[in-house]
């Protein structure tokens, strides 16, 4: 790899470290190509990505970035999993680590917050962005659904609801 290629890799990694909601570093020594492809596919499904890069280049790219604290984890055969969603990458690596004992999560970062092994596990148990949006929409939509159900009910049901309300008011 010549100097221009190295500079390009450092620039790409720098953009990854700056724009990602979460970055997780793990050792992957002993995994087969098929297992790594499986990890990449799972990360892609969740909206994340997996990147293997030279540790030295990754450390250069980390300088001045919010997640610079993960530089300590970059030794040996490391893989970086990242996503814009602050939870997606952590969930993917946790699930993958349960299936593959050779895959060892070292730690990571969520913005400028450093995460150790337990921190990555805690983040993976949080609801994802989509799950939070779905629960909020459910809360907002519930009263409207109740009103629509009452309006669509037969007249006798509406009459009984109105009489109940009248009794409570009296």
UniProtKB/TrEMBL annotation:
GO cellular component: large ribosomal subunit
Keywords: Ribonucleoprotein, Ribosomal protein, RNA-binding, rRNA-binding
Domain of life: Bacteria
Pfam families (alphabetical): Ribosomal_L10
InterPro entries in UniProt: Ribosomal_uL10 (IPR001790), Ribosomal_uL10-like_sf (IPR043141), Ribosomal_uL10_bac (IPR022973), Ribosomal_uL10_bac_type (IPR047865), Ribosomal_uL10_CS_bac (IPR002363)
Record has Glycosyltransferase as a keyword: no
Recorded GO MF terms: large ribosomal subunit rRNA binding; structural constituent of ribosome
Annotated SUPFAM superfamilies: Ribosomal protein L10-like
Single GO biological process annotation from the record: translation
Assembly: Part of the ribosomal stalk of the 50S ribosomal subunit. The N-terminus interacts with L11 and the large rRNA to form the base of the stalk. The C-terminus forms an elongated spine to which L12 dimers bind in a sequential fashion forming a multimeric L10(L12)X complex.
Described purpose of this protein according to its UniProt entry: Forms part of the ribosomal stalk, playing a central role in the interaction of the ribosome with GTP-bound translation factors.
Protein name: Large ribosomal subunit protein uL10
């Amino acid at each position: 790899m010549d100097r221009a290629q190295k500079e390009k890799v450092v620039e790409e990694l720098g953009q990854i470290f700056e724009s990602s909601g979460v970055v997780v570093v793990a050792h992957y020594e002993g995994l087969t190509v098929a297992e790594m492809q499986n990890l990449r596919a799972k990360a892609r499904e969740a909206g994340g990505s997996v990147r293997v890069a030279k540790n030295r280049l990754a450390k250069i790219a980390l300088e001045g970035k919010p997640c610079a604290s993960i530089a300590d984890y970059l030794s040996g055969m490391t893989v970086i999993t990242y996503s814009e969603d602050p939870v997606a990458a952590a969930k993917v690596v946790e699930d993958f680590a349960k299936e593959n004992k050779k895959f060892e999560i070292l730690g990571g970062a969520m913005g400028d917050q450093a995460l150790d092994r337990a921190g990555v596990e805690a983040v993976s148990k949080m609801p994802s962005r989509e799950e939070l949006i779905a629960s909020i929409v459910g809360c907002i939509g519930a009263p409207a659904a109740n009103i629509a159900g009452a309006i669509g009910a037969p007249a006798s049901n509406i009459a009984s609801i109105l009489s109940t309300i009248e009794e409570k008011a009296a």
